[in-house]
From TrEMBL:
Keywords: Carbohydrate metabolism, Glycosidase, Hydrolase, Secreted. Transmembrane segments: none annotated. The lineage of its organism: Bacteria, Pseudomonadati, Bacteroidota, Flavobacteriia, Flavobacteriales. Residues 30-364 form the GH26 domain. The keyword Secreted applies. Its EC number is 3.2.1.78. PANTHER family: GH26 DOMAIN-CONTAINING PROTEIN-RELATED, MANNAN ENDO-1,4-BETA-MANNOSIDASE E-RELATED. One of its GO terms (molecular function) is hydrolase activity. The keyword S-adenosyl-L-methionine does not apply. This is Mannan endo-1,4-beta-mannosidase. The active site is at E187 (proton donor), E295 (nucleophile). It is found in: Secreted. It catalyses: Random hydrolysis of (1->4)-beta-D-mannosidic linkages in mannans, galactomannans and glucomannans.
């Protein structure tokens, strides 16, 4: 492409109101690139609603066709559906294949309906027992062991190959691979996971992150991922937020997980929560990245006006530009562990108001999210 054509295309993009966004994978599939662009467009005037494990199970049910608690309340699935790669390591081959089959169906069906998948990774420690949590006397500080040159680096590469194989397998009926927002090593500024701050130096964290992204996209050929960076809420400035940031070439989306400021244990500090959202929302605008409220929620939702008077009011403040907000899962058997309402739950009416607000978007509101012809229904 010569300079004259390139400059002409640049002019067209700018005058059409498009963004010159800093997506890290230059070989990303067309659908992944379009999703990236459309999420940025959405974030200027709206926000998508997401729910973790929304389609796999809910309050008192599991594995039912085309069901979610959100759909049971509103008539629409959430726009963003969370899944997890937690069973992609430290499990038997049979368990791995079973999990992959369930998740593959989930991801493809979400793509074909026009929804979006985001992937968290509760990564079972590859160098010790203890699972994904840090357990004193059991867990090892393993980020230094899985980085290049570490004792468990080759094992880590095999785990990434499992993830890559899955990414290559989510091919829909149209022959396209379903894009996913991949969010590894989340809440890394806390101490509850083995990759947490007290167990991992900044240098080792950054080394593992950079290797993970490079190996997936450049060596294993994964081109349907958008990479999300999401600490917990333990920062109060841009400098603190960026303390373990691996660099603009390794991150597509800036996020935050924050339950503590939004009512956990009855404690609210919405001013602090908003300040933190504003920090990385502004940072994403400046860096031409995406931003999202990657996890939040109020367990059991005892505040029946939480959706409109806490969450929505905050999201509409300070000119935030967030592509989506995701609340955590609804457990199958627990009577208290749920973060989205189900029919009859005390916040159900307020959630419908949240759903009806033009600012919030659910799956039914989206059309052609993976296309340049994207619009809202």
């Amino acid at each position: 492409m010569n300079d004259k054509i390139r400059n002409a295309l640049l002019f067209v993009c700018l005058t059409a109101g498009h963004f010159l966004l800093a997506q890290i994978d230059k070989k990303a599939t067309k659908e992944t690139k379009n999703l990236f662009q459309n999420l940025k467009t959405i974030s200027q005037k709206h926000i998508l609603f997401g729910h973790q494990h929304a389609l796999e199970y809910g309050h008192g049910w599991s594995n039912e066709l085309n069901r979610s608690d959100v759909k049971s309340v509103t008539g629409s699935h959430p726009a963003v559906v969370g899944i997890d790669f937690s069973d992609f390591s430290g499990r038997s081959k049979e368990q791995l294949e079973k999990t992959k089959a369930i998740l593959r169906k989930n991801v493809i069906e979400t793509y074909e309906r026009g929804g979006i998948t985001t992937v968290s990774w509760h990564f079972n420690n590859p160098a010790s027992d203890g699972g994904f949590y840090w357990k004193d006397g059991i867990s090892k500080a393993s980020m230094s062991l899985i980085k290049p040159g570490g004792s468990h680096h080759e094992e880590y590469k095999e785990i990434l190959k499992t993830i890559a194989n899955f990414a290559h397998s989510v091919k829909a009926k149209d022959g396209k691979l379903s894009p996913m927002i991949f969010r590894p090593f989340h809440e890394f500024d806390g101490d509850w996971f083995w990759w947490g701050k007290s167990q991992t130096s900044s240098e080792d964290f950054i080394a593992v992150w950079q290797f993970t992204v490079s190996y997936l996209k450049d060596t294993l050929g994964v081109h349907n991922f958008i990479y999300a960076f999401s600490p917990d809420n333990r920062f109060n400035s841009e400098e603190e937020y960026l303390e373990r940031y691996p660099g603009d070439d390794f991150v597509d989306l800036l996020g935050m997980d924050d339950y503590g400021d939004f009512g956990r244990d009855g404690k609210y500090d919405l001013e602090a929560g908003l300040k933190k959202l504003k920090i990385f929302s502004d940072l994403a605008i400046r860096k031409k990245k995406l931003a999202a409220f990657t996890e939040t929620g109020l367990e059991s939702i005892p505040n029946e006006k939480w959706w409109t008077e806490v969450l929505l009011k905050t999201l509409k403040s300070e000119n935030l530009q967030l592509a989506y907000v995701l609340v955590w899962r609804n457990d199958v058997t627990s009577t208290t562990h749920y973060y989205a309402p189900y029919p009859g739950q005390k916040s159900e009416k307020d959630f419908i108001k949240f759903y009806d607000d033009p600012f919030t978007l659910f799956e039914k509101d989206l059309q052609n999210i993976y296309d340049t012809k994207f619009n809202l229904k």
